[in-house]
Amino acid sequence: MEKKIVVIGAGIAGLSAGCYARMNGYAVDVYESHRIPGGLCTAWEKGDYTIDGCLHWLMGSSEADPFNKFWRELGAVQNRKFHNHEAFYRFTNLDGRTFILYCDVDRLEKHMMELSPEDVDTIHYFCNLIRKFSRHTMSQDKAFELFNVFNVLSMMWKMIPVMKDFKYCLRTSLQEFADRFRDPFLREIFPIILNAGEMSMLAIISTMAALNNKAAGFPTGGSLQFSTSIEKRLRELGGNIYYRKRVIKILVADGKATGIVLEDGSAVAADYVISCADMHTTLNKLLGGNYGCPQHEELFAGEKIYPSSVQVSFGVNMDLSEEPDCVSDLYKLREPIEIGKRKMEWLGIRNFSFDPTLAPKEKTVIECFFYSDDFRFWEVLYKNKRAYKAEKERIAACVAKELEHKYPGFSSHIEVVDVATPMTYVRYTGNYKGSYMTWVMSPDFMKKYQLIQKDLPGLKNFWLSGMWVLPPGGVPTGAKTSRDVLQIICKLDRRKFRTTEPKL
Predict the structure, then answer these.
(1) Residue 46, number of CB atoms within 10 A of its CB
(2) Residue 502: is it exposed, middle or buried by C-beta count within 10 angstroms (0-12/13-18/19+)?
(3) What is the pLDDT of residue 159?
């Protein structure tokens, strides 16, 4: 008789857990409170337009990256077109100076040299780091919890060519690296590339290396179609998925997780439980705070969480396909826009003309993205629905006014307006403080937390999976952590961990 695994949440982590469970002979039920799969990896329709709420780029979009293997196992990349942007970010200052973070490192280096010849040494160093990491990829096939001495030594041996550079990136923040530039424009914009100046340099160098390898493209069709392809794989493997089924409790008996309780009061028995839901909710609500882990408590009490966001989207009757091709186009504002309690000095624009599936012909989806680290403001405002709606309308009007300068006539061509706030994330995903990522990976954080625990003291047959156990988060962490958890379960059951790819 097959052992049964119950998975909480049908985001990328939950769908992946279900797929890998089935590949290894376990019966699996996935329970999701929403009516669609994907969790944070989602999109929604507004009139004739599709508003994408997640992916900016996808690590592992080509075989140049080891992560592609996992996406193939999950049926997520087969027969899917990916758009590789010409540039990652474009920054335009008030004086008209523009820095273009080209994806191609040679083009990037040439551009930076023309922009700031006095920074030749720093520019060469930055671009050479990208080149080195572009050539050096590491297998992520085995769960680190299962590493033996041979695995550790093998990993260290393979890292010898980049060990010195890896250590430098690990211990240096974006802000610290930005301070090396003589050019004030470069000093200003480098810390805001990932909106966290304290973030380790490893984040930007690894991302730029993947972009340089054309292994971090955008999946045509957007985030929800990407998630749906993994849901399809789960069903083909024989897994069950149940929507509009909110889990309110994890059942425990004799120190073991034995199942779950749904909102309607029904109980579901299981041999193993994997929570791919928000970690804070899982620990404090589903488990009632009864299985504290010192590491997790320390993380939530003292470490900085990546800010949530406000996303303002427009469907416009304009063909903007001739605009520069980049992930995000940022402009320094003449007058800051107040979002919550924070004054935003830069306007980031995402032009989705490159994906014809998201808007009718000769029309365009434009999204503007603001980081919002004042969750309490939105939490309080949300209680007054009229004030909450008015604030969203005010922000949309301010953004539309700014976009009028870039796209003359923009306001008169708007057909759809959509504003998502931190409370939108809370409503649809339950994420802690509306964060769409997890903790900021500063050099100190990475030194302190090399591995986040997936299990809990005193509770057997239970695991956490998803972005909270592999900071700072992102879509690939859902697949990776669930794959790791199934390896651990197979090890406990003395099964050989197996994976397959769908037949085309």
Answers:
(1) 16
(2) middle
(3) 86
Helices assigned H by DSSP within 47-172: 68-73, 105-115, 120-135, 149-159, 163-171
pTM exceeds cut of 0.90: yes
Rounded to the nearest 10 degrees, what angle do helices 12-23 and 222-236 cross at? 20
- How far apart, in Å, are the Cα atoms of 409 and each of 229, 353, 403? 38, 18, 9
pLDDT for res 155? 86
Cα Rg of the chain, angstroms: 23
Q: Under DSSP, is residue 371 helix (H, G, I), strand (E, B) or coil?
A: strand
Query: Tell me, what's the pLDDT at 383?
Result: 97
State which residues of the chain have pLDDT below 70. Answer: none
Helix H or strand E segment including 7:
strand 4-8
Helix (H) or strand (E) holding 247: strand 247-253
Three-state helix/strand/coil letters over 262-283:
ECCCCEEECCEEEECCCHHHHH
Beta bridge partners of 351: 366
The phi, psi pair for 279, rounded to 5°, reads -65, -45
pLDDT at 301: 95
**Ordered domains of the chain (ranges, CATH):** 4-42+65-78+220-302+438-492 (3.50.50.60), 104-213 (no CATH), 308-433 (3.90.660)
Q: Write out the H or E segment, with its range, that includes residue 443.
A: helix 443-448
